Amino acid sequence: MPYTNVFLQIKENLQIAYRQAIDSDERLDELRKAGHGKFVAIFTEDQGFTESSNRFLPYVQELVIEFDAMQNSTHVAPETLEKFVKKLATLLQTLQVFKLSK
Length: 102
Prior knowledge:
This protein is an all-alpha fold. The chain has helices spanning 4-33, 57-72, 78-100. The longest helix is centred in the N-terminal third of the chain and has 30 residues, at 4-33. The radius of gyration is 15 Å and the shape is elongated.
């Protein structure tokens, strides 16, 4: 498979995103209980996600589904991989900014 090393890195980053999403979603719950965080979605449609949620975990799940599809495909177009990596980077960057904004 031509993207073996890339896929290994993506898998590691998805695991990081999953752990950070759980922590961030717990923090979002605390903020909502305090009367903050009254937004509908974390990401806009133009950021590439089809999911629309005010929690991080659904976005991670969307990426996992896409990643599984890429792994099971016999041919992954470079554009598909690039689009996926951009979405993953956006998610990881947003999680990091949220984590640092305590």
